[in-house]
Amino acid sequence: MSSTVSTGQGHLPGANPGPARHRHQPGPQTDAPPERPGLTGPQAVVKPVITVLTIGLVFVSVFLAAFHTPQAHRLPVAVAASDKTAALFDVRLQRVAPDGFQVDRYPDNASARWAVGHRHAYAALLADGGAPRIVYAGANGPAVSALVAPLGSLCAPGCHTAEQKLPVIDILPLSRGDSRGLSVFYASFGLVLAGFLFGQMTYQVAPRLSFGQRVGSLALFAVVGGLATALIASTAFGAVPGPFLGIAGLVVLMAGAVAAATVLLIRVFGPVGVPLASIFMLIMGNATSGGVLPPDFLPGWLKPLASVMPAGVGVRALDGIAYFHHDGLTSGIVVLSTWIALCVAALFLLDRIVASAAILHAARP
């Protein structure tokens, strides 16, 4: 009796085929969060209520803490004047707003004026030759303008009557398309919100995307959103002055940073990542962005977030490219790029861990 050996085309004589072996072929790797069964019973009733109320109450608490009675905290004011004049001016500033201003000395009028134009100071006393005057940047927003305007009622250095006022001059006004100074905030908030929604919807609409596909989708969203926002805010309405590509590039980075952070939170925490992203990216981020009030008006516990959250560094960079000679632009690009790089790297690492676990599982007999 002859035996056969199986080949792809039949059986060869002379061998006895052993039992067939089936090699496990792992499917395509995805970065979807672990699947969890839906809630039932009392938890299904109570948990959504607790989650949504928590988000709402955090919003109320944070925004009221930031804006219910905003006060300036040591706003830098440049002073180019003699020691006696600077000391006298400092005393008068403290009478106007105790602890509201901080006097920084500059050697001459030109350097003090430069400090205002580059947002190193909110206003400047120019008394190093010529008639003393106060200059400020209206592009810092109505809150700063309202705070600086009364400084004109201060008696000029060396005056003896209350009628001798200091002229107050706006050397860097808002654009005509942005009379209230809120356009940068609205433009950035729109894409921050869109970034959060993208991070949420990408797992709802396409939970089984591979890592590469999801990152590609994120990049497409950020680029298209940045270009569209710049087209609307800068070109259509003329509300945000500055170079189109610069504005678009910053908005791309802001949207990408928020979207990547939201995707990572959902990837790590599953459904809980959605309320976490809304609290940190939307509520904390926009409250401390400086779009409504400069960060120097925020409470001490909120102010540090303005220099690390995507919305805060993005708004400052947009203001800088629009008005303040690129103030905050470099740091904004670095911080936003770091957010994106770290979040994408974390997603990649999690994907590799899951892939390695799947391979080990498949290799077990």
Task: Give structural notes.
The structure is a single chain. This protein has 365 residues and is an alpha/beta fold. Helices cover 53% and strands 8% of the residues. It has 10 helices and 7 strands. It has helices at 41-67, 83-96, 109-117, 142-148, 183-205, 211-236, 244-269, 273-287, 310-322, 329-363; strands at 4-6, 11-13, 75-80, 101-105, 123-126, 133-136, 168-170. It has a 5-stranded mixed β-sheet with strand order 4-3-5-6-7, with helices on both faces. Strands 1-2 form a two-stranded antiparallel ribbon. α5 runs antiparallel to α6 (211-236) and α6 runs antiparallel to α7 (244-269). The longest helix has 35 residues, at 329-363. The protein is elongated and about 90 Å long. The two termini are 34 Å apart. Mean pLDDT is 86; it is low at 1-15 and 20-24.
Q: What kind of sheet is the major sheet?
A: 5 strands, mixed
* Integer average pLDDT: 86
Unreliable spans are 1-15, 20-24
Between the first and last Cα atoms, what is the distance in angstroms? 34 Å
List the helices and strands and how they pair.
Elements: E1 4-6, E2 11-13, H1 41-67, E3 75-80, H2 83-96, E4 101-105, H3 109-117, E5 123-126, E6 133-136, H4 142-148, E7 168-170, H5 183-205, H6 211-236, H7 244-269, H8 273-287, H9 310-322, H10 329-363
Parallel strand pairs: 3-4, 3-5, 6-7
Antiparallel strand pairs: 1-2, 5-6
Q: What's this model, at a glance?
A:
The protein has 365 residues and is of the alpha/beta class.
Task: Give keywords.
single chain, 365 residues, five-stranded mixed β-sheet, two-stranded antiparallel sheet, 10 helices, 7 strands
